[in-house]
Specification:
Radius of gyration: 22 Å
Shape: globular
Strand content: 35-45%
Number of strands: 30
Helix content: under 10%
Low-confidence stretches: 1-81, 410-452
Largest sheet: 5 strands, antiparallel
Strand order of the largest sheet: 2-26-25-24-23
Length: 452
């Protein structure tokens, strides 16, 4: 389960290319599509001698490039802000904490559940007698109920909320004596939700929904842990980013809940590199990760259970923006390179959407729907990206985006081949272009909104 080496050129050898001039907004796209632009890929990534846990980084041929295209939040343990949109593994339900209209300092927060698997999406508010605190967290279950975590003094309280008649029903699950706790993504089985309590020398993993007797501790992992990515469809293998109790780099480990939380190495790219797992697809085995093994933080991809090199595509290294993957196309059995990956791109103009395939070597960029919660979305098996959004005109909507077809770089640039050795073109030949999102008036959305 260890992803091994890095494919490409010398570590730190590829300097950041100067950004191209910002392109003018494109003409309106085809109705029902999100308009955007593409960024070509340069070289596949940076190379490094050795594999597995014993690889040695080569000396850089050039000065190390500045940190660009990375998300500083990737290694942070901060709780997400109110409004985070959490989806079930199958995309049927979603939940978020939202606020009633009012002055910013006096808004009343309440949970809201979205139903997304019907002919039209719709949202159901789940308020109780008292408003929720803005640091509460919610997570949907496959049966339509919503788990909520509340912090009360130095305890974490858990309940299940569900619509009942004109009001909201609440089932108390219990409490955990812990000052800080973070909900993990809902289990792929749709029944369980886990929470992580991170300490300095160990982390406690709790099943807070789906158990027989309320919240229960299911594993205790040595070290300081963060993250949380499911690696299988049964909800048994969980990946966490761990720093050993004595310090050292952060490494992703696989935690087997069927063996009392036994932790085994998952990512060991270089002995001293910080290797974090961001996303995984259980069908294809595709892994999306972030590592500083090339000399600075880069987005990369590998295959679960494979010893093939980890690759760091140049097209995902954009200047002056943060690029974070948030959804992988399911159902691509044994074909990780064909999976479409959705990425959140954050820059000075705001947040927009990127679509990329490992085999395509090209980043397609699209305007996001107005009211999109950045990083919220899910793929259908046939390659349609669904982006939930809410705004003044549409209280509950889903914009649809078909995964674009990839075109060989040679047919776009007019080049007949790669470098002199038959490889890929260098970063200097094809600098990625950062496009400003096209105004939505010029980029019609094919969305489904709740009827008034």
């Amino acid at each position: 389960m260890t992803a091994c080496a890095i494919e490409g050129g010398s570590a730190g050898a590829a300097a950041t290319a100067d950004p191209e001039a910002e392109p003018e907004p494109e003409e309106p796209g085809e109705p029902g599509k999100l308009a955007g632009a593409d960024a070509e890929n340069g070289e596949a990534g940076e190379e490094y001698a050795g594999t597995g846990e014993t690889g040695e980084v080569e000396e850089a041929d050039e000065a190390e490039a500045s940190l660009t295209g990375t998300d500083a939040r990737s290694g942070a343990d901060d709780a997400p802000p109110p409004g985070r949109f959490t989806l079930t593994a199958d995309g049927a339900y979603a939940a978020r904490l939202t606020a009633a209209p009012g002055p910013p300092g006096e808004r009343a927060w309440y949970p809201e559940r979205w139903t997304l698997d019907g002919p039209e999406p719709y949202a159901v508010p789940l308020p109780l007698d008292q408003p929720e605190e803005p640091d509460s967290e919610v997570a949907p279950l496959a049966d339509g109920r919503v788990l909520i975590r509340r912090r009360v003094a130095d305890r974490q309280m858990f309940s299940l909320l569900y619509p009942t008649g004109p009001g909201t029903g609440e089932l108390l699950l219990g409490a955990v004596g812990c000052a800080e706790m973070t909900l993990l993504p809902p289990s792929p089985d749709g029944r369980c939700v886990y929470a992580l309590a991170a300490g300095e020398d160990h982390a406690s993993l709790w099943r807070v929904a789906g158990g027989a007797f309320g919240p229960e501790e299911v594993a205790r992992i040595p070290g300081r842990c963060s993250g949380g990515v499911w690696l299988d469809r049964a909800g048994r293998i969980l990946a966490l980013d761990r720093r050993e109790p004595g310090g050292g780099p952060v490494k992703a480990v696989a935690v087997d809940l069927g063996r009392q939380g036994e932790a085994t190495p998952l990512l060991q790219i270089a002995p001293g590199s910080n290797d974090r797992l961001l996303l995984a697809d259980a069908d294809s085995g595709l892994l999306l990760l972030r590592s500083d093994a090339p000399g600075h933080d880069r987005l990369g991809w590998g295959v679960l259970g494979s010893c093939l090199p980890v690759r760091f595509p140049e097209c995902l290294r954009l200047p002056d923006v943060a690029v974070t993957p948030f959804a992988v196309q399911p159902g691509q059995m044994l074909m990780p390179e064909s999976c479409a990956v959705a990425l959140r791109i954050d820059g000075a103009p705001g947040s927009w959407v990127g679509v990329w395939r490992p085999a395509g070597r090209r980043l397609h960029q699209f305007a996001a729907p107005l009211g999109w919660v950045p990083g919220a979305g899910y793929w259908s098996r046939d390659g349609v990206l669904r982006l939930p959004y809410a705004n003044g005109a549409t209280p509950c909507g889903v914009a649809l985006l078909d995964a674009p077809e990839d075109v060989e770089p040679s047919s776009v640039t007019g080049r007949t081949g790669g470098g002199e050795d038959g490889g890929e073109p260098s970063a200097a030949d094809t600098a990625p272009a950062v496009c400003k999102p096209v105004p939505l008036g010029q980029a019609p959305l094919h969305g489904a909104a709740r009827p008034d």
